[in-house]
Amino acid sequence: MSEILLGLSTVFQPFNLLLCIGGLFAGIIFGALPGFSATMAVAVFIPFSYVLEPASAMLLLSGLYCGGVYGGSIPAILLGIPGTPASAPTAMEGRALTRKGESGHALALCTVASSFGGAFSALALLFMAPVLTVIALKVGPPEQIMIAVFGLSVVCLLVEGNAAKGLLVGFFALLLATIGQDPQVGYQRFTFGNLHLYAGISLVPILIGLFSFPEVLQMLETDGEGFSEVNEAGKLYLKANDFLKNKLTLIRSTIIGVVIGIIPAAGPDIAAFLSYNEAKKASKKPEEFGNGSVEGIIASEAANNAVTGGSLIPLLSLGIPGSAPAALFLSAMYIHGLQPGSQLFTRDAGTVYTLMVGFVVINVLMVIAGLLFCKIANFVLVIPKSILATMIVILATVGAYATNKSMFDVLQCYIAGIAGYIMVKNDYPLSPVALALLLGSMLETAISQTMVMYPHNILQMFTRPYTIVFALLVVISFAWPFIKKRMEKKEGKTS
């Protein structure tokens, strides 16, 4: 307790508090710009941390990390462009609410859910790091296979009522994920001699084009018809029972985010889709998903922000980063002479407890900072539709280029955008593309590593307890839609 109080006093020193707030705002801006990300925000500011004390440097990077993950939801809601891949489920629900003239409601929901998820994960980091690290140690390639398959099972529910088209889209996207270098033997596949495809297709430009261009083209088609005018731009509000009715969704999604966060190679994007899927399965009104579901926004945002604290749990305890920004944290720690592991909590207790307490404070401050930022950003909806469409195309182009500083990425973005528009016009869902591209490479790498572990019989992976647990979750996930239908039929007969 004395270490926690010491960390609290350090965080609330005026200079350190200013770093927390400044990092938070800078992170939100990075996350809100399509093509930028929390990883990029942390990477850009690491050199500036050299001149700071270790505790102050960790607080600055923490603000950037948390703000970057949250910021991606703002363009997702207002423009239908996920600022980061983790905001793709939010884009589906948030944009639908914006079309109804409820952008302020969607932004407020997202801000509070993000703050709750992040604060809960920070408390888990503070009080449960040694215990939760045990889970991270038990998760290897076999478990990652089951996690990826579990994630892909989301497709069955995301496209409920249009399963054939959804599965076809998901299968095709998995094929696209195989483009590039084979993870086991290293030869090139489906690159056709194009050097730009040797590392595979670029995820961020594809998602930017896929979600933004259909919006732009539909906007130009209708000349703005069908888009609710926002007469009171900047008005943010919550309904009294938003979180009371959805408290189980909020808690469940936050726990999913923390658990996914501590698993290396997973991340906020996987957590967002998994929790979105679980929310839809448990919902009493699944038909609202895709049409502006409050549950969908809460689930997605609570989970992807809960990853932030979770990803630092194996980092601080074992030196194993749970996400890309956490890997940058590791390099920053080494720069400042901090060695992850058990000694970190004794030899550098002041710094590490400042970091953990700072994570809690930053996520609480996110409510205020986020609402202020959203109030300004919401004014984008009063811009004439022709100008707004042009701005979206420019932002998408710059975001696609900024990912790898490559015009080929811009080309990928445009191709994905045109394909997305054709899909929307023919009633093919876009979400399976995002999900399959996110999980495809993880699944293939995990399968390759598992085959090395069990060269004679890959089914031996089911001798591992955690693999069995995740396999049972996969079975339940695939079976749940049928179980739910039978339950509904029985309820209909009894009534």
From TrEMBL:
What domain of life does the native source organism fall in? Bacteria
Transmembrane feature ranges: 15-46, 58-81, 106-137, 149-175, 195-213, 255-276, 315-338, 350-373, 379-402, 466-483
Q: Which residues form the DUF112 domain?
A: 17-433
Q: What is the lineage of its organism?
A: Bacteria, Bacillati, Bacillota, Clostridia, Lachnospirales
Keyword Transmembrane attributed: yes
Keywords from the UniProt entry: Membrane, Transmembrane, Transmembrane helix
Answer yes or no on keyword Zinc-finger. no
Database matches in Pfam families: TctA
Q: What is this protein called?
A: Tripartite tricarboxylate transporter permease
